[in-house]
Amino acid sequence: DSGVTQTPKHLITATGQRVTLRCSPRSGDLSVYWYQQSLDQGLQFLIQYYNGEERAKGNILERFSAQQFPDLHSELNLSSLELGDSALYFCASSLTGLQNSPLHFGNGTRLTVT
Amino acid sequence: AQKVTQAQTEISVVEKEDVTLDCVYETRDTTYYLFWYKQPPSGELVFLIRRNSFDEQNEISGRYSWNFQKSTSSFNFTITASQVVDSAVYFCALGAGNNRKLIWGLGTSLAVNP
Question: Which has the closest alpha carbon to A57: A66, A67, A48, A65?
């Protein structure tokens, strides 16, 4: 058990809808990351937060947004969903948010857009 | 440019065979970090090891061993006497320079058959 909690585990929704994925980092970790994993594109980094502030941005679409709250939990909002957004979304956390800090991943949220 | 190449897309072995997963990286930075992660069929990503660029000592943990060679820019992972539970996708990742995000390989899918 990594200590990172992601909810929900599964999500099925229709195109055009909006969903929110939630992540609670491992106790003591200040940095949260969001990744998208699909069969055709592998593991794609979306965004990183450290102690409430955005630290790094990856291939995150404008339809997607995220934030990290004062209690360090994070939410990833996906809007105007398209079929291609169907994927496994992972949250990870690390102690310092630096490059040498191992990531601890949650179990993921499997999003299916129909 | 920074890059991680895992040339082996899929490997299939029979239980008790030794297997080596290759990872070749590219970076011009002198300080960098290399990681291996395991993603079993259940889906979660599990951190296995971190190695920094100044430490070329090989590491052994039970049946797992890692061979870091700066001369060939490789960080290979060997499983000795493989078991069915080793079946997973294994990812190699690089953290280097001013790039705050990890650079991930595409993963090697290992199937260990009884």
Answer: A48
All residues at 6 or more sequence positions from B39 whose CB lies less than 8 Å from its CB, including other chains: B45, B46, B88, B89, B90, B91, B107
β-bridge pairing B108-113 and B88-96: antiparallel
> Which tops the pLDDT comparison, B29 or A1?
B29
Sign of the C-alpha dihedral, residues A74, A69, A3, B36? positive
d(CA B71, CA A59): 32
Q: Kindly report, residue by residue over A42-70, the tens digit of the pLDDT.
A: 899 999 999 999 999 998 999 999 999 99
Tens of pLDDT, residues B44-68: 999 999 999 998 888 899 999 999 9
pLDDT tens digits along A72-100: 999 999 999 999 999 999 999 999 888 88
A55·B50 Cβ contact <8 A? no
* Chain A residues bordering chain B (beta-carbon distance below 8 Å): 2, 42-43, 45, 48, 55-56, 58, 88, 90, 92, 97, 99-100, 102-108, 110
- Is residue B30 within 8 Å of residue B52, measured between CB atoms? no
- Contact A48/B99, CB-based, under 8 Å? no
Reduced DSSP (H G I as helix, E B as strand, rest coil) percent helix, strand, coil of chain B, to 5: 5, 55, 40
